[in-house]
Every structure is written in structure tokens, then in C-alpha cells.
Amino acid sequence: MSLALSLPRVREFSPVLPVVAVVALLALPVSPSAESGAGPADAVSGLVVLYCVIRLLRERRRPLSRTAAVVLGLPVAALAVSAVGASSPVAGLTGMGRYLQVFVVVPVAVLLLVRDRRDFRLLAWSLVALAGWQGAIGVHQYATGTGASYQGADIRAVGTFGAADVMGMATVVSFGLVCALGLALGRASVRQRAVAAGCALALLVPLALSFSRGAWIATAVTCSVQLVLAGLRRALVVGAVVAAVGVVLVGGFGVGSAQLQERISSITQVTDAPDQSVTDRYTMWAAAVGMWRERPLTGVGLKGFPEQRDAHASLALSAGSDTEGAGAAFRRQPLLSPHNMYLLVLAEQGLIGLLALAGGWLALLVCGLRGLVRARGSGRGLDCALVGCGLLVWQLTDFAYADIGGPSTVLTAVCFGVVAWWALVGSDAVPTRAGTGPVPARTGTAGEAEEAGTRWR
Asked: CA quadruple 394, 398, 399, 405: dihedral positive or negative?
């Protein structure tokens, strides 16, 4: 009897829960001595893909629409060409596997496992929760001097990712902040919006203490875009509140004022008096451009940048970056990428690879913005639209200052899946105008009309 009573509940379990498990695993601490960027979350992401395949085979339905298949499958052919041109078969296969994981396989699995806007919001709130956890650890690290080394003091907030991945916590907190702001700007209950707004304001503190200039710029750009898309009046009100909070934290309480002012001022010092990290970044950018000029169409091959770096970089490039603190001993970390996703793809995959990847991202942005306009007109799904478009804008902006790598990379794959669901499925289920019925999703996998009480299986 008890088994029979429990079966209906099991059937109601959301298929997106395995994706939430991937997000939750990123809360675990990363070993300071870990050499590989892969972790438990990467392993579970593979199981999520397997679960998705089994689910599709069991239900015997067409997984993707033509548009989704083209947009998400576009990089595969370009990656195959770049893998063939790699310096070794092992480098080609490992590089291709990583790109497929981040930009194709995991995003497709997330897209197929999200059934409706309720699943979408569950995933968005899980990103907010992860950001809150990592941010709380980061603030504690700053307050107790147990973070990564920054200007001779162990005050840099890095969360559980350690000194070897100083961008990990900044990325997680930024994703959570973008999701929280999108949820706060939606049209849910007042209580939900208030909680989301509080989370967004709270996450500003660990983001500031990460001392990550790239994350600051990407978050500022994204939040500005979200506010404008939600309405100019609301943008002015929220901007005033954020400015007031910033004045209180920095001016009133002096939260990291000296370090933050120095870090912020260094953003503009790219020609007059740049620090060594800025010099290294621009030197590696020049090296990536030099590689591309040698092979403009196909690039030097996957995993080719580290091998070709010294042949194209000037003497201004340092031997590596110094990492220390957060439980790790002093270590000089080699500079193996240009810290610019577009230039990395251009150097290793050429114009073919860049057009394939960036073309797919641009298509997602266009589809997502089109759905956002429809959501504003109908009053349904605006929070999902702002989250989906916001995550993509953040990633595209951050890719100008960073690339993939490290344990937090799997979260990038999950976020691309969230973006793809809204752009290719969720936006099609939004009514074209208030009072009309939902438009069935083209994929047949996740379209829904949650407010109308209808769900496609």
C-alpha cells in the first residue's frame, strides 16, 4: 500500500533535479593540490547527459527542433576540423571533448530536462543558493584573512575554489546575482521579488571582495541591460538603491575601500601604468592574434595555444602568475590561455570555429530577446526572460576577459542550457499578447503554459 501511494509522487519529481545536483556539487571544496579542472560536478554532468538520453529513448520523441539542432549543433563540425589539426590526437580529442561538454552536450541535456517555467525558476534559485553559499565563504575569508593572496595579504574571496581558480567564486556569485535580479524584476509575488532583491544586494559584497575586474565589468553591463529591459523607471529606482548601498558599505563602513579603489582605478590603467597582470593579458592577446594570422581559417588546432605561445609572445610576458593562500602553498601558475574566449577560439579554431560558436550565441541572443519582448507584452515569463537573456549577456561580456577552464566551467555549461531553453523553447510558450493562449514549443520537449494550467509532456 505504501509503495502504491508513493509512486505518484515519484512521477512528479522534476527531471531537472539532476541538473540541480550538478549545481549543488559545486558547493564542495576543491582540493588545493588538484591539477585537473574536472571535479565531481563534471562527472555528474556526464550522468545527467546519460539520464537525458535514456529518458528520450524511453519516451520515443523527437528531441530538438530544426532551429535548436542547427544553433546548438553548429560548433560540432568546426570542432572536428580543429581536432584534426591539433598537434596530437590526444590533444585534439581532449580539447574537442571539453568544448562539446561546455557548449553542446550539457546545454542540450539541460534544455531537454527543463519542462516549464517552474523548472526554470527552480534552476535559477539553485544558482542563487550556490552563489549565496560561495559568497558567504568568500566574505568570511576576507574578514578572517584566510582567502587567496592579494597584494601580500590573504584577503581575496575565492570561496571553495581555492587560489588556483580565483575566478571561480566570482563567476558563481555573478551568475547568482544575475538570476536574483531577473527574478526580482519579474511579476511574481511581492514576497518572492523581495527575497530575490535582497539576495541580489547581498551578493554585491562577495562580488566586490573577489577583486575580479572582469566579473565586475560583466555584471555591471548585464545588470544595466536587465534593468533597461525591465523598464526605465524601475532601472532608475534600482540604480539609486544600489548606489546608496554602495555608499553605505564603502563610505560608511569602509568595506575594502583601499583595495577596491585601487582595483577599480586599475581598470582604466591599460596604457599609462598597467600592472603586470594587464601587461600579461595584452601580451597573450597579441600572441593569439599572431597564431590566427598564420592559419586564419582553421587556427593552430585545439590545445595549441600553450605550445605556440612562446613563439608568438613578446618578452613582456611574465613566467606565470603567483598563487597562494586559501589553504594552498605558494605556486607559480603558468599562463596557458589568452584569458579571452574569442581570441582563444580564433587562435586554435580560426574563423571557422569562431563563426560557428559566436554565430550560435548570437542566434540565442536574438531568439531570447524576441521572447523577452513577447513576455513584456503578455506579462508572463518576464523573470525567466530576464534571467535567460541576462546570463547570456554576462557570459558574452565576460568572454572578453576570460575563457573556459577550472571546476566552475561546468556551471557555464549549465547556464548555456538555461539560456538555450528560454531562447529556443520557453520563449515560444509565451503568449503573443495578453489574454491569448500559449504557443506550443517547437521542440515538443519543454513547452508549457504554466499559468493556464497546461503542461506538454
From this structure: negative
